[in-house]
Amino acid sequence: MDGEYRYDPDTFEVTDKMLEDYNRLGYIIVRGLLDSEEMALLKRTLEGSDAIMKNAYQLDDGLNKAVGLCIWSHPGHDVTGMIIRSEKLVRTSEKLIGRGEVYHYHTKITIKEPKTGGSFRWHQDYGYWYQNGNLFPDLNTVYIAYDKNDPENGCMQILEGSHKAGRQDHHRVGGQNGIDEERVQHLAKMCPLKYVELEPGDALIFCANLIHKSDANNSDRRRWSFLVSYNAKSNNPVYEHHHPQYTPLDVVPNSAIKSCTNFTDMTGKGFLDPSIDKTVIADKTNPVHLQETSK
Predict the structure, then answer these.
(1) N or C: which terminus of the chain has fewer CB atoms within 10 Å of its end residue's CB?
(2) pLDDT category, 281, cuts 50, 70, 90?
(3) Would you say residue 293 lies in a domain?
(4) How far apart are CA 224 and CA 93, in angstroms?
(5) Is the keyword Oxidoreductase in the record (predicted)?
């Protein structure tokens, strides 16, 4: 796949070619950004702490299904916090965004359970982050596959190069914000549709104006994803809102992920109460229930 790279802990850095691909395509893929040991620590943290599920909620997709979400504002000091603050995520994002220092805008887990997990409509992240007072699209997201991602279980779909079309108008679809489907159809004639198939630990790093979606999970396998979003310090939002304004990041070496033994203390993460998020309509009355057969 175009714009695809493999992470090597000894040699990885953002090259001129990588930056050219990111600016041309709106994304790059980094295979193996988290290795199997790091993924095992992440899973022990997310599936071993009840804080995640206690703070998860459902988002209606307008198609009679829903996606589970858990969002938090600050990295914290658990394993997820070490990943968020690691040099390989932070420094890579700084170089790709190209506006100097970045800070943690928020992290989320998206939860698509077998057969029942819903879809995300065609959208841009900046389509609603714009509403939060971010004057420029100087943000990105490091989307890390938690489970295998493929078309059957609702992998990410992107319109390659669509970020160059600029910010699109969004309107409410179910509990989400989406781009007008006719507009998307016209853009798809110019911007090739790509299904992003990932193995656990692979990362799709994409800019805030890239148009993307994901379909419902119709498989018998779950599809969780771990998404870390960064904003440039220079793009500090002009409005106080449900995501943080500029907060300096205490960046840690990559080795801090494997040396972290905190799997349960989520102090200071600032889990999002969706009732204060004006860009979506969440269903807190219908809690996220995980299926015991999820793999």
Answers:
(1) C
(2) very low
(3) no
(4) 22
(5) yes
Give how far Cα 188 sits from Cα of 87, 136, 192, 201, Å: 35, 24, 6, 29
Residue closest to 110 by CA, chosen among 34, 210, 215: 215
Q: What is the pTM of this model?
A: 0.93
Q: Is residue 72 part of a domain?
A: yes
The one-letter code for the residue type at 188 is A
In 3-state terms, what secondary structure has residue 204?
A: strand
- The three-class DSSP label of residue 82 is helix
Instruction: Find the mean pLDDT for residues 235-255.
Output: 97
pLDDT above 60 for 231: yes
Residue 28 in 3-state DSSP? strand
Residue 295: inside a domain: no
Contact (Cβ atoms closer than 8 angstroms) between residue 87 and residue 253: yes
Rg, the chain, Cα only: 18
User: Contact 162/26 with Cβ under 8 angstroms?
Assistant: yes
Note the pLDDT tens digit of each residue in 169-213.
998 776 777 899 999 999 999 999 999 999 999 999 999 999 999
Q: Does 290 reside within a domain?
A: no
Query: Where residue 54 sits, what CATH number does that domain have?
Result: 2.60.120.620
Range of the domain at 134: 4-281
Give buried/exposed letters for 150-176 (b at 16+ CB in 10 A, else e).
beebbbbbbbbbbbebeebebeebbbb
